[in-house]
Amino acid sequence: MPEEPKKRRYDSLRRETQALQTRAEIARAARRLFLAQGWAATTVRDVAREAGVSVPTVYAAYQNKTGLTRALVDAAGLSADPAQQLAELEDPAADPADQLAAMASFDRRLYERAGDIIVMIRDAGRSEPELAALYTNGRKAADRTRRQVFESWPPGSLRDGIDLPTAVDIYAALCNIDAYTTLTDERGWTPGRIEQWWREALPRELLDPGRTSPRR
Fold first, then answer.
1. Can you tell me the distance from the alpha carbon of 21 to that of 19, in angstroms, rounded to the nearest whole number?
2. Please, are residues 47 and 29 in contact by the beta-carbon 8 Å criterion?
3. Rounded to the nearest 10 degrees, how much is the dihedral formed by the CA atoms of 95, 101, 105, 108?
4. Model pTM score
5. How confident is the model at residue 14, as a pLDDT?
6. Residue 4: its pLDDT value, please?
């Protein structure tokens, strides 16, 4: 008798693990196909075939193709380790230059690990309103984070003549997927070199000259 509850518990864990593995395989298959043949040209049936599962299994896991794409967006954000960025931003010893460095590091990780997904969603969004909304919402969320960080700085941190909206705009103009891909794909820069440039350029463009040297 004592063995029966343990057996049921392990069976449940096995089913949960298998379900997670199936969802992950579906997501990996979708990513491969979206990047290889485009979002619009990829069907749920294609994803099911690539993942080795049934079409109803894909629908049960992600509801539809947009839901699957949204899951890829979430995975892209997690791949950049937002917890690390948060810890660095909340470091009591971090000054504005340090926080800009933490944000630049996060953007480097995001574009290095998931830039292809970001570009795919942005490009597909030109003809797919739901994907356009995903891309736009992601940009707005990034802007909100930047504004919250900038608002937390001591008065006088920003350069003379730069208000909060302008600071957010300048950050977005420097640290974006197009700048990243231009430098890596066309100019041969490494991700580390891009991050270093951002760490130097952001304080120079945004901060009062007395606050431009990060600790790291």
1. 5
2. yes
3. 150
4. 0.83
5. 74
6. 52
DSSP assignment letter at 187: S
Assess contact for 113 and 81: CB atoms under 8 A. no
Out of 12-21, 134-143, 174-183, least confident range: 12-21
Q: Give percent of the chain above pLDDT 90.
A: 73
pLDDT tops 90 at residue 216: no
For 65, the token pair is: 């193709």
Whether residue 26 contacts residue 63, with contact meaning beta carbons closer than 8 Å, is answered with no
> Does 29 score more than 60 pLDDT?
yes
Sign of CA dihedral 125, 127, 133, 134: negative
* Distances, alpha carbon 66 to alpha carbons 34, 71, 108, 139, 147, in Å: 12, 9, 26, 18, 29
Supply the DSSP string of 120-176, one letter for each residue.
HHHHHTTT-HHHHHHHHHHHHHHHHHHHHHHHTSPTT-BPTT--HHHHHHHHHHHSS
Could you please report the per-residue DSSP string of 57-98? HHHHHHSSHHHHHHHHHHHHHHHT-HHHHHHHHT-TT--HHH
What's the rounded Cα separation, in Å, for the pair 95 and 98? Answer: 5
